[in-house]
Amino acid sequence: MTSRLTRRQRRRISQGVQYAVFVAVVVVIAVLADWDRLQNQFAQADLAERLFPDIITIALRNTVVYTLSGFAFGLVLGLVIALMRLSSVAPYRWAASVYIEIFRGLPALLIFIFVGVAVPLAFPGTEIPGGTYGKVALGLGLVAAAYMAETIRAGIQAVPRGQMEAARSLGFSHARAMVSVILPQAYRIIIPPLTNELVLLFKDSSLVLFLGVTLDERELTKFGRDLASQTANSTPILVAGLCYLLVTIPLSLVVRRLEARTARAK
User: What are the transmembrane regions (predicted)?
Assistant: First the structure.
């Protein structure tokens, strides 16, 4: 009679089966895919060369500017909302909770439509400062603030309560203790999730195309989509996707490094 397999042996067999299935799927895809048609549609080298340098100097630059402006606005607004959520004044807590639930529940696309259409209708004759750049910063910031507020609130609550008590015993006011003692520690804790939010905003910046932009205001998705329509070929979309990865992959690696450092510090 054969002896029963140990837990380690069962784990190795399970891993071997999973690897075999993965290899089999890759082989099947490689055999069945029509690589010539894919190359003709997505990998035309001469067409890819024509995208440069505009895809970097215009599209990627605008994407980065849109992302950073939205992140900055969202970070400031998120801090305000987080402090309102922690306030002892009930109406502040209610307003912050309503904002978070609404803007976390609505798709980002609807927020952009609201910024581009509803705001001008609600306030006739007024213009959002910065034109398209201002609209994008507002749209991205409104969405990001709802998520950042909860992240910042969690970071503040993760700081030991004794830190506030020690600061108050030294004569600090509550506001000064929050700014000088609590918030610096909270931000150090929440740097990884905030960096992850930056990656998400970088991808959400593609929604700018629904605002109606000029040629010089196009971001990567709009840029690739326009040229794909003009050339009847998807190579520009593939190149635009690679430009996204050029930024998001390093940022994702930074997030993992920061998370590992935070775990070691704990």
Answer: 16-33, 64-84, 105-124, 235-255
